[in-house]
Amino acid sequence: MSTYGIDEKWIERIASDTFDLEVFNQTGVFVLRGAIAPPTVATWQREWAAFYEASLKNGRDVNRANPVALNEALPETLAGMYRDPALIDVARQVFGADIALYNHRFVIKDQFSRTPVFLHQDSCYHLGRHNKCSLFVPLSEVNGDNGGLSFYLGSHKLGFLGDAGEIDPEAFEIKWPKVTPEMRPGDFAIMHSSVWHESGPNVSGIDRIMADTIVQPADDPTGKELLAGSWRTDFFYSPINCIRYFKNSRVKKNMKFQEEIAELRASLDAANGQA
């Protein structure tokens, strides 16, 4: 009998060259093998190599709160990877005919960001509806040695946990199997945004390069671009700088507290200096 929240039979079925919606619904994760056309992958890799050499090799704008997220503007070819037909086809199998883009970025572990990323779910950081998925598209080898993603299969069934931050799996009576699938260029993974996931440090020295595209049904008012079908909403709003939508909030209170703490420390330092 399984000790997990899902039947262990699903674990060995999360990767294939054919998408399986039943497996995805059970696990919240699926890896498509060899799904992206080789000429397309080669073009993306050339673009990335040229971009990295010209703009990132000697340093980049590393976000201390999220070091793996690339802040620099992508060249046009890489910025439009999410329009690839293989990605849109799988998104339509999950959401139906009408698909929109929520966000597109790169998440990398290079010489400037080799550290682990704590266990979390993405849905708590999203605006709009929680019915979203990430498409992780590697342009390099991805495995446990270079900081590949680990997924807790089935954990999306718990939904939004009520806060944002590092999840403690020991706080739950129910357990979810952890897997770290290896991927190569041409593969991609689709993950429900409520799935718990993390990544270890890059200890191999081989850069982990992945695009991370978030897609959603086209009835979500946070959609940025229609990818397939028709819009199913008459109004839109931007998820950027979301604290502007609140007169007061947990985030604004925390920001205020941090400012007050900084002021108190400065006052104490000044007083100690005078003494």
Report what the structure shows:
This protein is of the alpha+beta class and 275 residues long. The chain has two domains: 8-235, q2cbj1_9rhob like domain (Jelly Rolls, Sandwich), CATH 2.60.120; 241-274. Helices cover 24% and strands 20% of the residues. The chain is built from five helices and eleven strands, in the order E-H-E-H-H-H-E-E-E-E-E-E-E-E-E-H. Strands 1-2-8-5-10-3-11 form a seven-stranded mixed β-sheet. Helix 1 (21-27) links the parallel strand 1 and strand 2. Keywords: Dioxygenase, Oxidoreductase.
In brief, what are we looking at here?
With 275 residues, this protein is α+β, with helices and mostly antiparallel strands. The protein has 5 helices and 11 strands.
Keywords:
single chain, 275 residues, alpha+beta, seven-stranded mixed β-sheet, four-stranded antiparallel β-sheet, 5 helices
In whole angstroms, the N-to-C terminal distance is: 68 Å
Strand content: 15-25%
Order of helices and strands: EHEHHHEEEEEEEEEH
Mean pLDDT across residues:
94
Report the top-level CATH class of the largest domain. Mainly Beta
By CATH, the architecture of the largest domain is named Sandwich
Ranges where pLDDT stays below 50 over 5 or more residues in a row are: none
From the 3D structure, determine the CATH topology of the largest domain: Jelly Rolls
What is the count of helical runs?
5
- Under CATH, the homologous superfamily of the largest domain reads q2cbj1_9rhob like domain
Structural class: alpha+beta
> What's the assembly state of these chains?
single chain
User: Biggest sheet, in brief?
Assistant: 7 strands, mixed
Q: Based on DSSP secondary structure assignment, what is the total number of beta strands?
A: 11
Q: Roughly how much helix do the residues carry, as a percent range?
A: 10-25%
Number of domains: 2
Please state the overall shape, judged from the principal axes of the Cα atoms.
Answer: globular
| Rg, nearest Å | 20 Å
Enumerate the strands of the largest sheet in spatial order, edge to edge or round the barrel. Answer: 1-2-8-5-10-3-11
GO molecular function, one term: 2-oxoglutarate-dependent dioxygenase activity
Pfam families: PhyH
Protein name: Phytanoyl-CoA dioxygenase
Keywords: Dioxygenase, Oxidoreductase
